[in-house]
Specification:
Layout: E1 8-15, H1 21-34, E2 38-44, E3 54-61, E4 85-88, H2 91-99, E5 109-113, H3 120-123, H4 133-143, E6 146-150, H5 152-159, H6 163-174, H7 181-191, H8 195-209, H9 235-247, H10 250-266, H11 269-288, H12 298-311, H13 316-323, H14 326-336, E7 347-350, H15 354-358, H16 363-371, H17 373-383, E8 387-390, H18 394-404, H19 414-433, H20 438-445, H21 455-475, H22 481-492, H23 499-507, H24 523-531
Parallel strand pairs: 1-4, 4-5, 5-6
Antiparallel strand pairs: 1-3, 2-3, 7-8
C-alpha cells in the first residue's frame, strides 16, 4: 500500500546558536513519539548569520499502518516544495527558507519571528546596510499557504524564557500539528529545562499566533524617540534637565536628553553641560535664520545625535570601562546560560595600536611619544599589539579596571584634545554655513556619520569626513550644493576603497580636494598637523 501525504508531516526549523532550535526539535520529536508516530530528525549546521542558521529537519509519519504496508523510508533533508511547516527563529531566515523553495503556497505554513538579528553583511556596511524587512513579509504572505509572524524575541524576554518556547507555542496556535495542547505541554515538562518559564512562553506564543491580525501589523510605523528619565538625585543633573526642558523645543527634547545621558555615562556632568552648550549654539543658528522651519527644526534634529555620538567617542578608557561593568558580566552569564556563581572564563581579545595607547596619555606627553621614535617603540613593545585577557582572573580584570579608572583624567588626554579640536572645527563650519546655505548646513550636520569604528576604519572615515567638509566649503552658496554633498556622502559610504568617492568628486569637479596640499584630505595628514601644533 502506498504511503499517503496525509500520514506524513515534514517540518523545517531554522535557528541560530542560542535560540534553542535543537530543544524545539527535541520537543517535537518527543511529542510525536509519545503519540505513537514514527519520527526522524536531522540537522545541517550553518555558520550563523554568515551562511545561514542551522536547519533542523523532521519527518513525522503516522505509526498506524495497514497489514502488509511497508515501513516508510524518511528523508534526511528538506526538499523544495515538500515541506508542510517552516519555523524560522529570525525574520531573514524565513527569507532564506523562501529562497530555498521550502515554502509553497499550496502546502506550507510559515511561522517566523519578526525580530532581526543582523547579518555580518549588514553590520559591516559603512552606511545603513539593514535589509528591508517588509520585503520578506511581503514575500512570505505571497508564498506561504499561511503566514504567522510577530516579535517572538520580545515575548521570550517578557516571559524570561527563550525564543524556542514561544515558537513551540506558535506551532500549537497555528494548528499545523495534529496534537492536543496537553501533548505540547507534556513535551516541555519531560524536557526538564526551565519548565515553568517555558510553559509561560509557550502560552504567550500560542495566544499571539491565534490572533486574527497577527500578520496584518507590518506597516511601517513611525517610532517616537524614547525619552530618558533620570533616576538619580544629583542636584546638578536635575538643574541641567530643567534647563533643557525650558530652552529646547519639544521636537528636540528627547534627543538632547539622550545626548546628556551619553555624556554622563561617558565622562561627567561637566561634559554633559558642554554638550548642551554646544547644542544651544546650534539652536541659536536656527532661531536666527529665516530659512529654517521652526516647526521642523531639521538642522538641529540632524546635528543633535551626531554631536552626541561624536562627543561620546570610544577610547581605551571607554573600552576598559564597558568591559569591567557588572551588568555586562550579568548579560554574558545570561547569554551563555550559566549562573554567576559557577566557574567561568571570558577572554577579551584586544589589539591596541601605538596611537591609541599614546592618545590615552596627557596631551603633551602623548604628542612627545608619537614624535619620538625610541619612546614610541618602547610604548609599543610594552602595551600595544594583540592581547588576550580573562576578566574572570584578578590580573586580567585589574589591568582593565585600572585603565577604566583613568576616566576623570580623560579631559587632559591627547585623544580628548584631538576630538574636541575636530568637533570645534565642525561647529565653526556649521556656524559659517547656516546663514549662507541652510540646506547645505543640514547635510554638513549629518557628515559625522562617516566617522565610526576604530583603528584604521575610523581613520578612513575621518579622512572622508575631512574631504567632504572641504567639499562643503567649496560648494557653499552654489546651486544644488546640498544635493551634491548628499551624493558625495552616499559615495563615501559605499566601500572602504574610496573609488566611488573619488569618482563622485571628479564628476562634480572637486577632484583637486584629493590632493594633500588642497586641504586636510586624510586623517593622517590632519592628525600630524594637530600634533605639530603648540600645546
Amino acid at each position: 500500500m502506498k504511503m499517503t501525504e496525509q500520514k506524513r508531516i515534514n517540518i523545517a526549523i531554522t535557528a541560530m546558536g542560542g535560540q534553542g532550535g535543537g530543544v524545539l526539535a527535541d520537543w517535537i520529536v518527543g511529542m510525536g513519539e509519545a503519540a505513537g508516530w514514527q519520527v526522524q530528525s536531522s540537522s545541517v549546521p550553518g555558520v550563523a548569520q554568515r551562511t545561514g542558521a542551522t536547519v533542523y529537519y523532521l519527518e513525522l509519519f503516522d505509526g498506524s499502518r495497514s497489514a502488509g504496508e511497508p515501513a516508510p523510508v524518511l528523508s534526511l533533508s528538506p526538499a523544495s516544495g515538500d515541506v508542510d511547516l517552516v519555523v524560522a527563529a529570525e525574520l531573514m531566515e524565513a527569507g532564506r527558507a523562501i529562497q530555498r523553495k521550502f515554502v509553497t503556497p499550496e502546502r506550507t505554513t510559515l511561522i517566523a519571528s519578526a525580530h532581526r538579528a543582523y547579518a555580518v553583511s549588514e553590520k559591516e556596511a559603512m552606511g545603513n546596510g539593514v535589509a528591508d524587512s517588509e520585503a520578506v513579509h511581503a514575500a512570505a504572505r505571497e508564498m506561504a499557504r499561511r503566514y504567522i509572524s510577530f516579535d517572538m524575541a520580545a515575548v521570550a524576554e517578557q516571559t524570561g524564557s527563550v525564543i524556542s518556547a514561544v515558537l513551540f507555542g506558535a506551532i500549537f496556535g497555528s494548528g499545523a500539528l495534529p496534537f492536543p495542547r496537553e501533548a505540547f505541554e507534556q513535551a516541555i515538562r519531560e524536557g526538564g529545562i526551565g519548565v515553568d518559564k517555558s510553559l509561560a512562553a509557550f502560552t504567550a506564543g500560542a495566544v499571539q499566533a491565534q490572533r486574527p491580525d497577527v500578520v496584518a501589523a507590518h506597516e511601517p510605523v513611525a517610532e517616537e524617540a524614547p525619552c530618558w528619565q533620570y533616576r538619580g538625585d544629583d542636584a546638578g543633573v536635575q538643574r541641567l534637565l530643567q534647563d533643557i526642558a525650558q530652552d529646547f523645543p519639544d521636537a528636540l527634547t528627547a534627543t538632547v536628553l539622550e545626548g546628556v545621558r551619553r555624556m554622563l555615562d561617558h565622562s561627567d556632568l561637566r561634559y554633559a553641560r558642554l554638550y548642551v552648550e554646544r547644542m544651544l549654539r546650534l539652536l541659536a543658528l536656527e532661531y536666527g535664520h529665516a530659512g529654517g522651519d521652526k516647526t521642523d527644526w531639521r538642522f538641529s534634529r540632524e546635528a543633535a545625535p551626531k554631536l552626541a555620538l561624536w562627543m561620546a567617542y570610544e577610547d581605551t578608557i571607554r573600552v576598559a570601562d564597558i568591559k569591567t561593568r557588572s551588568r555586562r558580566f550579568a548579560r554574558l552569564y545570561q547569554e551563555v546560560g550559566i549562573d554567576a556563581d559557577k566557574v567561568s572564563y571570558f577572554t577579551e581579545f584586544l589589539h591596541p595600536r601605538l596611537e591609541e595607547v599614546a592618545e590615552t596619555l596627557p596631551a603633551g606627553l602623548g604628542r612627545w611619544v608619537l614624535r619620538t621614535r625610541w619612546a614610541g617603540r618602547l610604548l609599543e613593545m610594552l602595551f600595544a599589539g594583540p592581547k588576550k585577557l580573562s576578566t574572570q582572573s584578578l590580573p586580567g580584570f585589574l589591568s582593565l579596571y585600572l585603565v577604566a579608572c583613568l576616566r576623570p583624567l580623560r579631559r587632559y588626554s591627547l585623544r580628548d584634545s584631538l576630538e574636541q579640536l575636530r568637533i570645534n572645527d565642525w561647529l565653526q563650519q556649521l556656524e559659517e554655513t547656516v546663514p549662507v546655505d541652510y540646506e547645505l548646513a543640514c547635510e554638513l550636520a549629518a557628515l559625522p556619520e562617516l566617522i565610526k569604528g576604530y583603528s584604521k576604519t575610523r581613520e578612513r572615515g575621518l579622512g572622508n569626513f575631512n574631504l567632504l567638509a572641504a567639499a562643503a566649503r567649496a560648494l557653499s552658496g552654489s546651486l544644488d550644493s546640498a544635493d551634491i554633498l548628499r551624493q558625495l556622502k552616499a559615495a563615501a559610504l559605499k566601500s572602504e576603497r574610496g573609488t566611488e568617492l573619488a569618482a563622485a568628486l571628479a564628476r562634480h569637479h572637486l577632484a583637486h580636494l584629493l590632493q594633500p596640499e588642497a586641504g586636510s584630505a586624510t586623517a593622517a595628514t590632519e592628525k600630524m598637523a594637530v600634533l605639530s601644533c603648540a600645546e
